[in-house]
């Protein structure tokens, strides 16, 4: 079957990456909706699981989320007793966010579901191809993070 999309677009990595992201996001969002969560909620839970307790502003920065939007996500997760907020012992003016035991349990389940959703959307690729794709995409993201932070290459 001939390609349905214009060859000009199919030659643009940014177009392809964006479209592939939408496909993968669709799978992941569907898995999260079963838990009445959205992608930013999962990002918060995953960030706290990976990095441990963080000051609220540091969590927003690491996730690339607007700090005021993060407050709303945290309010919902706290209401569901998945995260807790406490005064940061290093700076009493700040809030530190932690995962509760229920949050840790749910995050483990969500990570497994996220992995399954990614396997489903990348089923066309071999395991080796997936590793290559992830490695290449990660390099682009890390380079962008470095550029935005003002750090030089390899710093």
TrEMBL record:
Residues 13-142 form the HTH marR-type domain. Transmembrane segments: none annotated. GO terms for biological process: response to stress. SMART domains: HTH_MARR (SM00347). One of its GO terms (molecular function) is DNA-binding transcription factor activity. SUPFAM superfamilies: Winged helix' DNA-binding domain. This is MarR family transcriptional regulator. Keywords: DNA-binding. It comes from Amycolatopsis echigonensis. InterPro entries: HTH_MarR-typ, MarR/SlyA-like, WH-like_DNA-bd_sf, WH_DNA-bd_sf. It holds the Pfam family MarR. The keyword Repressor does not apply. The keyword DNA-binding applies.
């Amino acid at each position: 079957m001939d390609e349905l999309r214009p060859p000009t677009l199919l030659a643009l990595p940014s177009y392809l990456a964006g479209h592939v992201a939408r496909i993968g996001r669709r799978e992941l969002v569907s898995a999260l909706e079963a838990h009445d969560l959205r992608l930013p909620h999962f990002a918060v839970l995953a960030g706290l699981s990976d990095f441990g307790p963080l000051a609220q502003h540091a969590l927003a920065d690491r996730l690339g989320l607007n700090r005021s939007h993060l407050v709303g996500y945290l309010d919902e997760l706290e209401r569901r007793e998945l995260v807790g907020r406490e005064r940061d012992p290093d700076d009493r003016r700040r809030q530190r966010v932690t995962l509760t035991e229920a949050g840790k349990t749910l995050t483990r389940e969500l990570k497994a579901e996220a992995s399954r959703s990614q396997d489903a959307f990348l089923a066309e690729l071999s395991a080796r191809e997936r590793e290559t794709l992830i490695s290449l995409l990660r390099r682009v993201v890390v380079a962008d993070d470095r550029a935005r932070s003002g750090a030089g290459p390899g710093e």
